[in-house]
Design a protein that fits this description.
Four copies of one chain form a homotetramer. Chain A is of the alpha/beta class. Chain A contains 14 helices and eleven strands. Chain A has helices at residues 13-22, 34-46, 60-71, 85-88, 93-98, 114-123, 151-163, 175-182, 186-189, 221-230, 239-249, 253-273, 295-303, 336-347; strands at residues 53-57, 76-80, 102-105, 133-140, 168-172, 197-201, 211-215, 279-280, 288-294, 309-310, 323-329. The two termini of chain A are 15 Å apart. Chains A, B, C, D: InterPro entries: ArAA_b-elim_lyase/Thr_aldolase (IPR001597), PyrdxlP-dep_Trfase (IPR015424), PyrdxlP-dep_Trfase_major (IPR015421), PyrdxlP-dep_Trfase_small (IPR015422).
């Protein structure tokens, strides 16, 4: 009954099998392995982007920071949501990798609107040499609150950025979850909607630790390679990154896993919503739920071994009916039986 | 009729005379000149801080960035007002000098309140290693909107910072203007109210280009010296910085100049407020006014040669009675006759 | 017949098995997994250092850069050999992670001597605020030319550093190879000889990608954690790093693997030395040989499928007897049969 | 009798007069003053470079660091002499401003040779993504040991750089001294010999504190302006920088002052060389002498009030005839009478 995060479950067995298969003989290091050639081709095919530059790194923070550093000068500011991972959860990695750029927070929700983005852009870059200059826009899809931007949303945001000549980056730590939610193609969710660079996540969706960075215009490629190396992110035994991504993409495993976690989350939400005192706004778009549940229900769940984020300090004492907020995330590995057991515990 | 800024007028003649006096014979470079010894002693006396570390640099951005860098680790965030000079007007200098720290904006006005500061501090530093860590608080006195914090305001802000073990920096680009407005001593406006480090401005108040950085606890002294040197801010012919500051502090010139600019500003505000359609909220605390004046009045002033910041793009066309916002700043050199001429032009 | 590097062979099967074993159920992320607790204890035991701070990262460049950044201020210089990996092969990672520190090259060989180190230290830090300040000393063991410092060598170098109050870092990318060559304990090769921090390599010796960073004085621990996070080097699914290190250290696997690669290298060197025209200076200390071999011999080896670094551009044309330099490295996986096949090809 | 440095004497009175003249009325700040327009034109004329980008800063370290940062990526290395000011005397300013680039030391003297430069360039940039990439070449004219490169020397160095597609920067802290020594035009000593960017010094040659940075290809102009601002080097009251440079260039003052200091130095060298036990290699090219003089002579000079750098720790004790090295520098202000008094004291 572990719903704390999708980075805490096991990797899919196919990923481990791929490591074992890759563990044969001698392979060139540092990204020159043959599996990487396959991976690059496969990603270009999946994204319908035959010219794209494609790189692998091991963590999502790295993918975001290196991608953004390649698009951002040190005197610029990156536009993002106030709850963006790059702002809240990377210990100033973007500031570090860009050499001191700033982040400008857009609006007051996880979902940036074109109007809020336009206002934020207009608010910067009007002071000549004195203020920060306008830099790229970073969009998180699935957002940090579990929402999925529609394709029209994405197009409107990138059009706004383009009005000012700005590039856009997609933080796709949960790329697959968004994709299956929208039922579109990778190209449709990215460059066909104006996205310039993508952090394409694997770690949260069944891999051990691998993310791709994709530039649809390969101009920053060499610079990216140097940034990756001097950041310490170029693996000598790179084949083990490649093998993870290879297995992740093979036979649409990545889509299957995302469908599983989204479906698990829907089952969980549907079950919870039927319980008295539980409030969930809307359907969860992907595999993450923000909900309010009565204190007594939380207490029962914790006592039964449920693990998830209760966003309150007052679990232990207070009105048993008081609604306390919580975040629940399903990963690919969560069986329906566990979800049902959790719901039973919630029910009491 | 120049009210655009207090960095555009002439330097006081005493400052230039001091340069000429200093221009005798050979002097040790790099801050080891005898005048600097005098200046250090004088500042320690003025601030009643015999142990303070005292340094000179040539620009306000430098004073702020170097002072903050000495108090801030790269993984921390600096708390400041959303209109702070360090946020809006230094082209990411604090981010650069700290090696990639972040700025967290406190509240939504130029004057931080203890409650807003507490909320901002509480909002950071709760995510362990993931989020930015809490860094120092930077307070601007006079604020960028012309307000002066009372001594109680300052004490309450530094007490809030201290509750979390955080240091405070005072951006005193207009230190003297605030001091004469409050009628207190330098010590009362700084360390007696809990301030740890000060950017003590001279440039905007009659100097050519000199600011002191003062640390009441001299622990960061050597680190500051290294930061200043590698930032390119250590002058070989340092005596010309020292001489400016020496003359600025001699015979209370700095206080006289600040009184002049504050008085000029009061005269200007009082005259404007008497005119129909002009709105000024409150008395200007120091030497800066934010006001609204009718479009036609702006047009008359511009036509008559008035120079100041009209904070609107629609000066030329529209309802003549529509109120357009503006900022006016008085420097020490503005004679009453010019102010009166400006008021006459406003009157039409 | 792959002797190009010890980062190109397969991982030991026990490492892969450990990943599979670790791939059960849900585990706290970001270094809070239970396996990491075991690994920390085990490393403290092995190093007889119960207070040591112990962290895992995925690459050697990261281990070095983060360890050095924790010991070096941006205005300092790091003392190292002119062929140090941190100088030649990390694309300015130390400069990046330290925020702009410098590297001062010591002497003209891979093995620093105390005299050369003393001369280098004396050459810096004498210009007050003007020059770079003296920072830590970084020693590579096994050196980049395959040499192993004796315990007395290490003690003499760290004593020299300590004379100036400087810390020492050991780049132990091939730590195990050096240890078995010296036949001493980890404590004897590190803190008992004055070393303050160690990059303890696993990747080149049979792991997939894992290195430990060890600080014998744990003072920099929290700073290191923040540096690791904002560098993007904190793995969410950290258990897969922990599991590698766990298996690496279990049952002295790490020592066995190092003994195998050293023995393979000795067999190779002994076989080569017996051939006419081959020159190897001294016994290889560990698992790396620098040698000169006749051009014709190189040509035969390449034709037979031998892979290794020929340090010359003139393989194809020239006197068949001319000696061309080369580097050969044995990893743990190289069977004697392959070595013998290589020697047979060399013999022609 | 002050021969310690050319940054310790007075500024020329014309420079101070210019400040006074500039101190009239209100002027746009931040480089938009009318005097700067004149200065830019004048420098373009003097350098026969009508398109050049021209900026002013207050210190030589700043000029070098900002100019180099505009030409250098963080993963590159700058080629310079081992005694270059940027290496020895700027406390890692180039590393700081470039965001972590490296310096590669060329040869073992103050004068780089094309052969040594070629060898240094060949030694870098051959390791793909692993090593630092090749960056610009920085040439100091006058060198830190008082030598002046000939025009052919400069052409040969820049041709070598260009062979590898590298840019060249001239550190001209003593630009005027070199120029009058060579008797050529500014264009001949710079872009006509292949130089791309110049730090054009004023501070050491009679100014208070002003240096120009000149890019013959203005492409980096906007980036430079942003770097200057966020470095804290953009003066609000910029007219006082402009005025110094205006007066410095007017009526060839800059050339007169350089001729005076070079002539004073020649007089000093000639007088010293006539004394028994004094050794000076060659004629001093500009205004700096490296010499050996007997210990007893040094003792007499110090006793008489002579101030200069004795490059030995053993002034006080030892053989009176032992030759101890020293550096002597003449600035523009040194009268012949003082030089003769110094020579008399040396003679004893």
């Amino acid at each position: 009954m572990f719903f704390a995060s999708d980075n805490s479950g096991p990797a899919h067995p196919a990923i481990l099998d791929a490591l074992t298969r890759a563990n044969e003989g001698y392979a060139m290091g540092y990204g020159d392995d043959a599996i990487m050639d396959e991976v690059r081709d496969r990603i270009r095919t999946i994204f319908e982007a035959p010219e794209a530059a494609v790189y692998l790194v091991a963590t999502g923070t790295t993918a975001n920071a290196l991608a953004l550093a390649s698009l951002t000068a040190p005197w610029q500011t990156i536009f993002c949501s106030p709850v963006a991972h790059i702002h809240e959860d990377e210990c100033n990695a973007p500031e570090f990798y860009t050499g001191g750029a700033k982040l400008t927070l857009v609006g007051d929700s996880d979902r940036m609107t074109p109007a809020a983005l336009r206002a934020a852009i207009e608010g910067e870059g009007n002071r000549g040499v004195h203020g920060p200059q306008r830099g790229p826009v970073s969009i998180t899809q699935v957002t940090e609150r579990g929402h999925v931007y529609t394709l029209d949303d994405l197009a409107a945001l990138t059009a706004t950025a383009r009005d000012y000549g700005l590039k856009t980056h997609l933080d796709g730590a949960r790329f697959a979850n968004a994709l299956v939610a929208l039922g579109c193609t990778p190209a449709e969710m990215t460059w066909k909607r104006g996205i310039d660079a993508v952090s394409f996540g694997g770690t949260k969706n069944g891999c051990i630790g691998v993310e791709a960075v994709i530039f649809f215009d390969p101009a920053p490629a060499w610079e990216f390679e140097l940034r990756r190396k001097r950041g310490g992110h170029l693996f000598s035994k790179h084949r083990y990154l490649s093998a993870q991504m290879q297995a992740y993409l093979a036979d649409d495993l990545w889509l299957d896993l995302a469908r599983r976690s989204n479906a698990g989350c829907a089952r969980l939400a549907s079950g919870l919503r039927a319980l008295p005192g539980v409030r969930i706004d809307g359907t969860p778009d992907a595999n993450m739920i923000y909900t309010h549940m009565p204190r007594a229900m939380h207490q029962r769940l914790v006592a039964a071994g449920g693990v998830y984020h209760i966003l309150s300090d007052t679990l232990d004492s207070g009105d048993p009916d008081e609604a306390l907020p919580a975040r629940l995330v399903c990963d690919w590995s969560m069986p329906d039986s566990e979800i049902d057991r959790f719901l039973a515990a919630a029910r009491g």
